[in-house]
Amino acid sequence: MDDAVFLNYKIEDRSYVSYIKREIHNLVVAEGFSSQKIGEIDIVVAELTSNLIKFAETGELLYRISSDGQGVFFEMHCIDNGRGIRNLSRMMQDGVSSSDTLGQGLGAIERLSDTSAIYTIMNWGTVVHCKVYKSDATQPDRKKTIDLGAVQVCCPGEKVCGDGYAVKKVDNGFQFFMGDGLGHGINAHEAALEAIKAFKECREKSPAEVLRYIHQSVKKTRGLVGTVAHLDIAGQKWSICGVGNISTIVYTGLTAKNYTPYNGILGHNIPRTLNDSVQDLEKYQTLIMHSDGLRTRWNLTDLPGILKYDPNTIAAVLYKDNARHNDDMSVFAAKINL
User: Among 94, 109, 136, 167, which is least packed, fewest CB within 10 Å?
Assistant: First the structure.
């Protein structure tokens, strides 16, 4: 999973729309998307921005070029705090409109995207996620053990992100890492990159031992906080260890279990004793990790049906409600399909 950051653009007036449409068009042209794919992305962006202005007046677009096991793709989230969409399933049908238009916008977004999702609550707003692959995407593996999703946005005014996350396969399981370099900007970015490099090369299974390895590897950097979670499928358990203020929550249905990290800074000072926190692996759990660029006082029970959605949408919804917009902002979600 690529951790390419999202570019973000706040739309506060209709006059902004033509600029953002041109920026996205130029982005996918430069990436080498075919003329057909570019045309499809242009339509999706046009429909999303038109709906945003028409029904919510203001909002935020997050977009990026990234890649995964299926190839390179363009991905976008459209986020607003508007009045929401009443009877979403009906509004997805062609010819149905609440504003005297042709009523083909939401249906067109779904048809032209390789994957798409809409989460909406009345008087809360709407989050639309869509992804278009550069080449025709293969059918997703319905038997995947985990589904992954993330939103990562730079601190306003910065061009690089001081947060970072990574995932790796470990025997019959997976390890997940999220780190947050001290401060923001290039020095924080370098610390996060060095930590991710150390995480990927470390062969330890214990999250505490992985953190010790990262600690030694990042001593020449500014330092960072970080958490490692190990999903042990054979042992049917989670092991988690963290240093500093990365928030880590495992949801089992609507029941949440929060992990409390140790005090310290990787690369500077960590406790002499680090122990893994262990909990049972259960069916259909969801792991969520985020940096302190998001507020911590949230609860997914306040968002009806959100755990039925893919991790990309879960991450975007948490970003919508909790982003501080004064630091790097990263939220990562993994759904376990066991």
Answer: 136
Q: What is the CATH number of the domain that holds 183?
A: 3.60.40.10
Instruction: Give the residue among 100, 102, 60 at the shortest CA–CA distance from 82.
Output: 60
How is residue 4 written in tokens? Answer: 């390419």
Helix axes 105-112, 35-51, angle to 10 degrees: 150
> What does the DSSP 8-state code read for residue 21?
H
- Which residue, among 290, 217, 211, 204, has the nearest Cα to 243 in the 3D structure? 211
Total domains, the chain: 2
Question: Is residue 184, in this structure, part of any structural domain at all?
Answer: yes
Q: Which domain holds residue 47?
A: 7-133
Mean pLDDT of each 10-residue bin along the chain, 338 residues long = 84 88 97 96 92 90 93 96 82 51 65 94 95 80 84 96 96 96 96 98 97 98 98 96 98 94 98 96 96 95 94 98 96 94
Based on the domain organization, do 26 and 100 belong to the same domain?
yes
Single out the residue in 72, 99, 133 at which a domain terminates. 133
Clarify whether residues 70 and 167 are in a common domain: no
Chain-centre distance of CA 210, in angstroms?
23
Q: Is 1 among the domain residues? A: no
The residues, ordered by sequence, that sit 6+ positions from 45 with a Cβ below 8 Å of its Cβ are 20, 21, 24, 25, 76
List, as one string, the DSSP characters of 218-234.
Answer: TTTS--EEEEEEEEETT
Residue 84 corresponds to which amino acid?
G
Q: Has residue 168 been placed in a domain?
A: yes
Task: Retrieve residue 301's tokens.
Answer: 């029970």
Give the HSE-up count for residue 268: Cα atoms under 13 Å, Cβ half-sphere: 14
